[in-house]
Amino acid sequence: MENHEWYPATSPLPMATPSRRVLPRGETQTKSPSINESPRMNIRCIRTHHLRDHLDVPFGFSQWYYNTRNTLWVEIIAEDGTTGWGESYGPSEVYQAAINSFYAPRLLGQNAMATDVLWHLMWRSSLDFARGGVMMGAMSGIDMALWDLRGKALGQSVSELMGGRYVDQIPCYATGMYFKDMPESDLIASIVDEARSYQQQGFQALKIKVGKNLPFDIRQIESIRDALPNMQMMADSNHAFDLPEAIQIGRVLEENDFSWFEEPLSPEFEGQFRQLQDKLDIPIATGECEQTRYGFQRLLSTGGVQIAQPDLAYCGGPSEALKIRNLASSMGINVVPHCWGTMLNLAAATHFIASGYREPGRKEVASPLLEFDRTPNALRDELFDIPVVVQNGIAQVPTGPGLGVVVNQEKMKSFTVQQTELKA
Ligand SMILES: [Mg+2]
Questions:
Q1: Which pTM value belongs to this model?
Q2: For residue 47, how far is its CA from the centre of ligand 1 (angstroms)?
Q3: Which of 1, 27, 176, 402 has the least C-beta neighbours within 10 A?
Q4: Confidence at 35, pLDDT banded by 50, 70, 90
Q5: Which PROSITE patterns match (predicted)?
């Protein structure tokens, strides 16, 4: 492999230079510049923060159990001190190395406002050996931080940068009902109790896990529907089933009035999605393991997916999620992002949904849904001075600049496992 197109790591890309409006170091932009004053803000510093919280009670799903919560945050600081924050969904240690060792040296000195240009610089830099996977997950956190930074520099929220908000409030569905290490009959009772607690908190929709084993899954689906006859429900197997199993469970979900069947099949067997959909009426949702417009083009063109679920902290970031949404829109498919992690990703997903056009358009459009993970996570709940506000199951779209959430860096210290810093 020849790296014949590398640009020097700290030199600007050869591009037209916009008019400079550089603020003194440490001073923050306080008013929105006019179009003609669009600032160039070179990247001065990139930090990563690997954060970890230990769980009192492990919980699991069809693939593994969690006993800790981890996240990788990206902090990008421009020459005027404006700072953007982003999050990558996946293995924090690996992301930390990918960002600090590979991408950060190529981004220092570049114009932080040029989110799409920088996305494609990162894409071409790693395309030859990583068309996706953890390198794309690392890019996602960087891209999210750049959107936050650009919004702060321009005094606009990310949803405004994305084209404006169709809604200011978004109903959430509660993600929970994970498996715990206990007898199955006790587990079902525990899951039903947990579901009732979400109803009492005001949620009108929730999502359960399936894929433990078929007898358990069927008992769980029927028990929770009996307990909560009016709740909107979805089910997620995290790619646990083969095709005959998925058909069987899908029919049970239909009989119990579930709204979508998430990741019924492995993402490796794209052709099976169409075969499954031909057997079922329930909509098929998937995509949290998929990345980029190219990956989603292959997945959605099977005709077996009704709801696309990119994760903004993994699919390529907000920049790529917009392209995925445009692709899905051209096929008449709506996007309901997967959302896991902390308030950074939740804020990104909230802005993304708020700015999304629903296909097909109509005056009385169905409400979009925001995934709101309710499993224990101090990294989400304790580290933000300004979080995404969710009350009675309804999220307020943040109106502050950028992502509109504010990290408490003092509280962050006690959860920090490893921090890196690279300066221009
Ligand atoms: Mg899922």
A1: 0.91
A2: 29
A3: 1
A4: very low
A5: MR_MLE_1 (PS00908)
Q: Which residues surround ligand 1, an ion (CB under 5 A)?
A: 236, 262
Q: Are residues 293 and 342 in the same domain?
A: yes
Give residue 260 CA to ligand 1 midpoint distance, Å. 11
With respect to residue 6, please indicate whether it lies within any of the assigned structural domains: no
**CA–CA distances in Å: residue 200 to residues 142, 190, 359:** 38, 15, 32
Same domain, 129 and 96: yes
In a domain, 5, yes or no: no
Q: Which residue has the tokens 């392209």?
A: 323
317: domain CATH number is 3.20.20.120
Amino acid at 63: Q
- Those residues with Cβ within 8 angstroms of residue 304's Cβ, 6 or more apart along the chain or in another chain: 270, 272, 273, 274, 275, 276, 277, 278, 284
338 is catalytic: yes
Is the same domain home to 211 and 284?
yes
Determine, yes or no, domain membership for 21.
no
Number of domains in the chain: 2
CA of 28 to the centre of ligand 1 (A): 39
Catalytic choice (49, 50, 239, 338): 338
Residues 367 and 219 in one domain: yes
Residues 314, 137 contacting (CB under 8 angstroms): yes
Is 228 within the bounds of a domain? yes
Confidence band of 178 (pLDDT split at 50, 70, 90): very high
Give the Å distance between the CA of 60 and the centre of ligand 1.
Answer: 13
Residues 180 and 115 in one domain: no
Domain carrying residue 297: 160-408
Which pLDDT band holds residue 7 (cuts at 50, 70, 90)? very low
Same domain flag for 339 and 419: no
- In the reported structure, the alpha carbon of residue 364 is separated from the centroid of ligand 1 by a whole-number distance in angstroms of 28
Are 101 and 122 in the same domain? yes
